[in-house]
């Protein structure tokens, strides 16, 4: 029998709903996104990753150009491959890589089974978020790779919330 005073119950991470993920994307929109913004956002992600000793790689792209990249201790070349695969999903679907995967799961299938896209080229795993500019749409991506996918996603969202003051 479970006694809350004696043995704390393990609380698994709650998977966000499609609606919650869509709300994040409506909320986390830039007025503009410059090279300096990419540097500042990337630097914030690196600072947070260092504080947490997170073994991640961080990447920011705009319009097909890589504006920021950093690989922290513990990350590997495999993280760069994941970044590329997740980024292609965001560029193709205009939504976060985690949301794209969640939409397939909500339909009772998986991205790999139903997207008809090569899984060596596309990965609908959490960690890549669209850089959306007001009145311009998705103009780039910010990606983290190295943690479990929900943690990668939440890490990017947290940094965007801080950066945008939301």
UniProtKB/TrEMBL annotation:
| Domain of life of the source | Bacteria
Pfam families this protein is in?
HbpS-like
Gene3D superfamilies cross-referenced by the UniProt entry: Haem-degrading domain
Q: Which InterPro entries match?
A: PduO/GlcC-like, PduO/GlcC-like_sf, YBR137W-like
Q: Which regions form coiled coils?
A: none
State the family it belongs to: Belongs to the UPF0303 family.
Q: What is this protein called?
A: UPF0303 protein B446_14995
Which organism is the protein's source? Streptomyces collinus (strain DSM 40733 / Tue 365)
Q: What is the lineage of its organism?
A: Bacteria, Bacillati, Actinomycetota, Actinomycetes, Kitasatosporales
């Amino acid at each position: 029998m479970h006694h809350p005073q004696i043995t704390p119950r393990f609380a698994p991470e709650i998977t966000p709903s499609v609606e919650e993920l869509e709300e994040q994307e409506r909320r986390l929109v830039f007025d503009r996104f410059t090279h300096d913004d990419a540097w500042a956002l990337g630097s914030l992600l690196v600072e947070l990753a260092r504080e947490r000793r997170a073994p991640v790689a961080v990447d920011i792209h705009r319009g097909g150009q890589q504006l920021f990249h950093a690989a922290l201790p513990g990350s590997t070349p495999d993280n760069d491959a994941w970044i590329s695969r997740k980024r292609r999903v965001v560029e193709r679907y205009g939504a976060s890589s985690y949301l794209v995967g969640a939409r397939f799961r909500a339909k009772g299938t998986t991205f790999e089974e139903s997207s008809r896209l090569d899984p060596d080229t596309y990965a609908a795993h959490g960690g890549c978020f669209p850089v959306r500019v007001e009145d311009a749409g998705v103009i780039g991506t910010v990606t983290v790779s190295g943690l479990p996918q929900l943690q990668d996603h939440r890490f990017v969202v947290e940094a965007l919330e801080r950066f945008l003051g939301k």
